[in-house]
Design brief:
Mean pLDDT: 97
Helix content: 40-55%
Order of helices and strands: EHEHHEHEHEHEHEEEHEH
Strand content: 15-25%
Number of helices: 9
Number of strands: 10
Low-confidence stretches: none
Distance between the termini: 9 Å
Largest sheet: 8 strands, parallel, barrel
Shape: globular
Length: 270
């Protein structure tokens, strides 16, 4: 297993500085978003092959792998212009991911928090976008990793299996498993059963896990927490990881500098 972090949780830094910092902090992997992690790149239009080569060399020099190039796009948006841009940029990031030597290019399927009716309405647009993007993934021989989120069009296990059956390409379609983004009812959910069901069904598609924890305040508002201090229960996930004979990257999201050592110990225990 590779222990990693979302690079921009450390702020926006120069390319070589970021790679060295992550190495010094003890990470062997990082999820990077080009426009959020590096001072040299404010917009996707700033990306050049020369900059990509700098990123690749800096991370290789410091022994930090890039399991995920994040390119989170609004794939299900009913607005055709928004959706066209999302497809275009995700296709471009697949090409850039190949240049970087990234494991996957990762995305969710929407930006906003959708109601149930909206999730159903956005689903056909999401499916069409995935079909388009997969053409580039296959042509570039680069993996696209979708991240299910309960308030997005890729909302649940049934929809995820539907997408897998539609694409029928295990080599180029992968998953990022973020259990906290699938936990709609923390107080009433048997997490052991839920994560076991998910991982038995689609675990072979999971290359990356996002690891985080949270609590809900009196108004039911999301509050990030140190790992092991919130509502998340990782027992079933730990059992599944223990059985894997391949490398899975564990990426800490919403990292708090005050709890880096404790969080890294938690992930190593997974």
């Amino acid at each position: 297993m590779k222990i990693g972090v979302r690079a921009h949780d450390y702020g926006k830094r120069k390319i070589e500085e970021m790679a060295a910092l992550l190495h010094d902090e003890g990470y062997g992997a990082a999820q990077i978003v080009l426009t959020k992690a590096f001072m040299e790149i404010d917009r996707y239009e700033d990306v050049t092959l020369k900059l990509l080569e700098r990123v690749r060399r800096a991370f290789e020099k410091n022994g930090v792998e890039i399991p995920v190039l994040g390119c989170y796009m609004d794939l299900g948006n009913p607005d055709p212009q928004v959706r066209q841009y999302a497809v275009k940029m995700l296709k471009q990031c697949l090409v850039w991911g190949k240049e970087l030597g990234a494991g996957v290019v990762g995305t969710e399927t929407a930006y906003p928090r959708l109601k149930d009716t909206e999730r159903r309405e956005w689903k056909p647009y999401m499916l069409d976008s995935i079909k388009q993007v997969m053409e580039t993934a296959q042509r570039a021989d680069m993996r696209l990793a979708l991240e299910p989120v309960w308030w997005h069009p890729l909302t649940d296990l049934a929809t995820t299996l539907e997408v897998i059956r539609m694409v029928r390409d295990k080599e180029h379609l992968r998953l990022i498993f973020d259990s906290s983004n699938l936990l709609e009812f923390p107080e009433d959910t048997n997490q052991d059963e839920l994560w076991t069901e998910w991982l038995e069904a689609v675990g072979e598609y999971v290359d990356v896990m996002h690891i985080k924890d949270f609590s809900l305040d009196r108004r039911k508002q999301y509050q990030p927490e140190p790992l092991g201090k919130g509502v998340m229960r990782y027992d079933a996930i730990r059992r599944w990881l223990d059985k894997q004979k391949r490398e899975i990257s564990l990426i800490r999201e919403e990292m708090n500098l005050l709890f880096v050592k404790e969080d890294m110990a938690f992930m190593r225990n997974l």
